[in-house]
Amino acid sequence: MIGKLFRLFLLLLVLAVGLAGGAVYWGFQKFHEPGPAAADTTVVIDHGLGVRGIADKLAEAGVISDPLVFAAGVRVYGEGRPLKAGEYLFAGRLSMRLVMEQMIAGATIQHRLTIPEGLTSAEIVALVAAVPDLDGAVPTTVPPDGTLLPETYFFTRGDTRAQLLERMRKGMQDALAELWPARDEASPLKTAAEAVTLASIVEKETALAAERPHVASVFFNRLAQNMPLQSDPTVIYALTGGKGPLNRPLSKADLKIADPYNTYVNPGLPPGPIANPGRASLKAVLHPDTTKDLYFVADGTGGHAFAATLDEHNKNVAAWRQQQKQQTDQMQAQ
Predict the structure, then answer these.
(1) Can you give the pTM of this predicted structure?
(2) Is 116 helix (H, G, I), strand (E, B) or coil?
(3) Options 3.30.70.1290, 3.40.1080.10, 3.30.1490.480, 2.60.120.10; which CATH number does 29-105 get?
(4) What does the pLDDT look like over 53-74, one tens digit per residue?
(5) Considering only the top CATH level, what class is 293-334?
(6) Is the Cα torsion angle 199, 262, 227, 269 positive or negative in sign?
């Protein structure tokens, strides 16, 4: 009787081991097989969710087929590495193992925001405030003009607006730390702050990167001869306070306004930047062309015609006005 009971016990033990082994094998297969999602799927994993909460959310989104198997697989194969929160794009038919690895790596969706060169800080803050994938409010105090570096910034959902603006501020600091020490030895600029101020004027005067060192040379030549810079963008800044575009042509009265930023009535550089210049404009004022030019005017092609004398400049201005007249006549004739 005892022998029969012992044999029965052994049989049940073998069956139990077999069933357990089969369950482990089934779980292994399930964890590594292609997932149920037929197409790429975006899922936002909030902070604070545990492994089981994450598993349930992935199952609800159709990314995984079995939350229990996923949670068990993470504990077995994750080796204690945490699953990171964020916005994920999971490829169609992705296995639970690969979903786990993507979340451990924190390979979230990367968003981008391009800050155009030459915007004021108020305009940049408005752009950042309008980005829907950022969190938090923008600072109540707008950063000073010239302290934010225009370029393309990548961020993930959940990053804050304050963090992105801080990256822009650090970007400008880093750019100046790199570019200022490498400036031309003969540069008359005394400080990096002066470089940012002049670069902001160059930035607003021309959109052509190749032309910026030439424009910078004109301003340096004017400064060397104690001539006013006579830059229209500085007058616009004086009128708007950097809040936005003027949306009308400048008048003769505008050029006479009493404002520290008006470079028609005040010699030298204005008291500070009128915009946030990019790296190309910063390089242009630190490595300007060598010319004798003192004047420039639009040439009708998007660039400018430069002149060393007032007579040459007047001819260029006359040519520009003639082009404008022809364009107006053509539009009226249509």
Answers:
(1) 0.84
(2) coil
(3) 3.30.1490.480
(4) 999 999 999 999 999 999 999 9
(5) alpha beta
(6) negative
